[in-house]
Design a protein that fits this description.
Helix content is 73%, strand content 0%. The chain is built from 14 helices and no strands.
Length: 311
């Protein structure tokens, strides 16, 4: 083969490779495009709109010609609003109960389901039932179970000798822990499945080496299992915190922000300000602050994960 022929062959190969790359790039763009369009329409534009709205004085009962730029006034008002500040604190209280509980419960369930036993497939299927159950139907069931006067739970506690059982959803002190724990029960299936997938990826050789060294079951969990699944735990912590701050649906159906304003968390407060009181700009300011809090928490976690997450 002559030098000219070799050059032509090499050029044809380069053109073929270039064309293949172009086709792959076009296919990738076509696959990503539906998601990007949906993200821009339903996520990015509303976020930008909420940020702009938070600097205005807009509500649905005023003419557009009366809308004015008021700068940081809405944000200043948030820090002067006792109801809004308490709503933020209640959301953090909810996080402190929900996040550790759902992580621990999901991890324990994953450990149990990772073992071989009779009916394991059926049990794994049943774990999903609360997760896919209708939220309103679940709320009706728990409203009956946790009725403070005639509910079966308090009747059972009365038979056990407890004179003053909890008020559950009707108590000002008990309502947030009760809603959080019900949400743990309903949402732990996701954490269980993710943890179960992570556990099945831990090399068996590490457990065998630990057994040779005489490690107990607890030592194997703390020194082998937890470090190996730490990236999964890191992911679930972030997801759990975000889910805990987006708890409007649970608060609405279980307690409707009550009794009084005992369970008026920030997501519920934002909804009420926007759609009950028509304070859209003020609600937008609260939602932006909530976004910034989530962003700061995520950044802190991302910086701190280098100390305990092992990839």
């Amino acid at each position: 083969m002559t030098t000219r022929a070799k050059r032509l062959l090499s050029l044809n190969k380069s053109r073929t490779t270039f064309n293949l790359k172009k086709q792959e790039e076009r296919a990738a763009v076509m696959m990503i495009m539906p998601f990007m369009i949906g993200f821009i329409i339903f996520a990015l534009i509303p976020v930008v709109y909420a940020i702009v709205l938070s600097f205005l004085n807009y509500n649905s009962l005023m003419d557009l010609k009366d809308v004015k730029w008021i700068g940081l006034s809405n944000y200043i008002q948030v820090f002067q609003d006792e109801v809004a500040l308490k709503a933020f604190l209640k959301s953090f209280y909810y996080i402190l109960i929900y996040v550790p509980s759902v992580l621990i419960f999901g991890f324990v369930m994953a450990l149990l389901l990772n073992k071989a036993f009779y009916g394991r497939t059926v049990i794994r299927t049943l774990i999903l039932m609360p997760y896919v159950s209708n939220l309103v139907a679940v709320a009706m069931v728990f409203a009956i179970l946790l009725d403070p006067f005639n509910g079966p739970v308090n009747m059972l506690l009365g038979y056990l000798g407890i004179d003053n059982p909890p008020m559950w959803l009707a108590g000002t002190k008990e309502v947030i822990p009760t809603v959080a724990l019900i949400s743990v029960w309903q949402g732990s299936a996701f954490h269980t499945i993710v943890y179960l997938a992570a556990l099945q990826g831990v090399p068996r050789e590490l457990y065998e080496a630990a057994e040779i060294d005489g490690a107990s079951r607890w030592k194997k969990i703390t020194n082998v299992t937890l470090p190996m699944i730490s990236p999964t735990t890191f992911f679930l912590i972030i997801v759990s915190i975000i889910n805990a701050l987006q708890n409007y649906s649970a608060i609405k159906v279980y307690s409707d922000g009550g009794p009084g304003d005992a369970s008026r968390v920030i997501s519920y407060n934002i909804y009420e300000e926007a759609f009950s009181y028509n304070h859209f700009s003020y609600a937008g300011a609260q939602s932006v602050l909530l976004f910034l809090i989530v962003l700061v928490i995520t950044i802190i976690q991302w910086k701190g994960q280098k100390k305990w997450v092992h990839y």
